[in-house]
Specification:
Elements lengths: L5 H24 L9 H11 L6 H11 L5 H17 L2 H9 L17 H25 L13 H4 L2 H19 L11 H31 L5 H30 L15 H14 L9 H4 L2 H4 L5
Helix pairs in contact: 1-2, 1-3, 2-4, 3-4, 4-6, 4-9, 5-6, 6-8, 8-9, 8-10, 9-10, 10-11
Length: 309
């Protein structure tokens, strides 16, 4: 210790105290009690992500260590705590999680010992894949799609064509991982999985909003795109229509378990004539002929897409 100044010693003591306090809070948030993590422990950990003297790698590693246990309850709650901090904590945590080569490695997780172990282990594997994908999206796009500015002057509505065509598939992949959670309402049987589902529901609404705005922007630009861009855009749009169906099934489950649907998006499908107009335009660029459509149908996408935007 002789080489250290008094300030160094105080700083080290503060850091180790903070470190042990973090470990303690993580342990308390991830107890064997079959209920979601307590708000006071989550609030403390959110506060920690905003403190400059807190080591974000230490906080993240402490959470990751909790997923190395055999108990589905502890592992599920560690994932929930991580998800909660991704949503409400300082962006430094998201940046760190996105920078790691591996995050959760739970593809083979199985708790055979506990009541509900088999069933809940399935959801743990799916949930961990979604959180990995959420971090990967951030790594690829350097933005959290659930937190970006929305509206007519928002990020997705003002993005250029090239970036849109690169970004929309990243959103699609993240939404796919979320929708793969796939619970039936009768499987949401305890406070742990219910808490996870609530966080996923919130992410799904915000993620879809960014996705929808990006697709609207893409369709507005479609008739001015180059041939190869039109081709990619058409595939993105077809995938989008398919995801709307899957999302509406996910939201029905939320409705059945009593989650307030006030935030839910309007998933009214655009008329099939819009898809036909897009296909017709691409065919004309490629020198192919499809059945003739009225010129007007090519330009009505502004009004037809999910109501007026």
């Amino acid at each position: 210790m002789s080489g250290q100044s008094l300030t160094d010693r105080i700083a080290a003591a503060q850091h180790s105290m903070t470190g042990s306090a973090i470990s303690k809070a993580v342990c308390k948030a991830t107890t064997h009690e079959v209920s979601g993590p307590k708000k006071k422990h989550l609030d403390y950990l959110i506060h920690c992500t905003n403190e400059l003297n807190v080591s974000i790698p230490h906080l993240a590693d402490t959470l990751l260590e909790r997923t190395a246990t055999n108990s589905w309850i502890v592992v599920f709650k560690a994932l929930i705590t991580t998800h909660h901090l991704m949503m409400y904590g300082n962006e430094r945590l998201m940046q760190y999680l996105a920078s790691r080569n591996t995050l959760f490695n739970l593809n083979n997780f199985l708790d055979k010992a506990a009541l509900q172990g088999y069933n809940m282990s399935t959801f743990i594997r799916r949930y961990s894949r979604y959180l990995n994908e959420k971090a990967m999206s951030y790594r690829l796009a350097a933005v959290d799609f659930t937190k970006m500015k929305r509206g007519a002057d928002g990020v997705m509505r003002t993005m250029n064509t090239e970036k849109l065509i690169k970004t929309l598939p990243i959103i699609q992949t993240q939404l796919d991982a979320l929708l793969d959670f796939q619970p039936n309402s009768n499987e949401l049987t305890n406070g742990v999985i219910n808490t996870a589902f609530m966080l996923l529901f919130k992410d799904s609404i915000r993620l879809f909003a960014a996705y929808n705005e990006g697709v609207i922007n893409m369709l507005e630009k479609y008739f001015d795109m180059k041939k190869n861009q039109c081709k990619e855009a058409l595939e993105i749009y077809k995938t989008f229509l398919n995801r709307m169906t899957k999302l509406s099934e996910f939201l029905k489950v939320a409705e059945r378990v009593g989650i307030d649907q006030g935030d839910s998006p309007d998933l009214t499908q655009a008329p099939s004539s819009l898809l036909e107009a897009l296909e017709q335009h691409l065919a004309s660029l490629e020198g192919r002929k499809l059945k003739e459509l009225s010129t007007a149908s090519r330009y009505v996408h502004h009004k037809m897409l999910f109501g007026s935007h």
